[in-house]
């Protein structure tokens, strides 16, 4: 036994010559270290997954607020336009003038308009400026102030008629000058439908999301 061999130790631990016993590291410590690293990684992944779930169920939190701030919310629906204030036929006085060589045409047309509620003013031949010079079914003529009121109302009664304003003073009277292509007034039900459409407000665009939202 060598002098370097501690008392009581022999066999494979006996030191002889230039050989020394090799002490192995404790494998238990290595396993503990590995377990700690794996546990830390698992906890990190679990925490990240929890944050993702919270983000999904809360609608993105800050992302939603940022989108709203950027103007990505729906535009508010526009308020409906008011109904157009078109006059009733009973408030419109019509002068029926014949610009064709057919006799009695102005009187027959005036009688038909009266039955539809219009007031009738003058009935006779058209002035020299328009006599035999109106090619279409008719010409609806009045003051500029009547361009959006009485004139379009009267125009619903004669399909294909032309509407025109002149320099006359503002007046409740308008002229219906019958032209070469005139045959008869528009059917009463079709004229009533056109008058209803005339008084409706223009359709408004629906609310939409802005592009890119």
* Uncertain stretches: none
Provide the helix percentage.
25-40%
Share of β-strand residues: 5-15%
Instruction: Indicate the mean pLDDT.
Output: 77
Distance between the termini: 88 Å
Largest sheet: 5 strands, mixed
Described by the principal axes of the CA atoms, the overall outline is rod-shaped
Number of domains: 2
Taking Cα atoms only, what radius of gyration do you get, to the nearest Å?
49 Å
The number of helices is 5
The number of E-state strands comes to 5
Strand order of the largest sheet: 2-1-5-3-4
Oligomer class: single chain
The helix/strand series, from N terminus to C terminus, equals HHEHEEHEEH
Q: Kindly name the structural category.
A: alpha/beta
How would you concisely characterize the structure shown here?
This protein is an alpha/beta fold.
Explain what this protein looks like in three dimensions.
The protein has helices spanning 27-57, 62-69, 105-115, 150-155, 188-199, and strands spanning 93-98, 119-125, 138-143, 162-166, 173-178. Strands 2-1-5-3-4 form a 5-stranded mixed sheet. It folds into 2 domains: 1-72; 89-199, no CATH class. Helix content is 32%, strand content 14%. It contains 5 helices and 5 strands, in the order H-H-E-H-E-E-H-E-E-H. The model has no long low-confidence stretch (mean pLDDT 77). By secondary structure, the chain is of the alpha/beta class. The two termini are 88 Å apart. Strand 3 (138-143), helix 4 (150-155) and strand 4 (162-166) form a beta-alpha-beta unit.
Features:
213 residues, alpha/beta, 2 domains, five-stranded mixed β-sheet
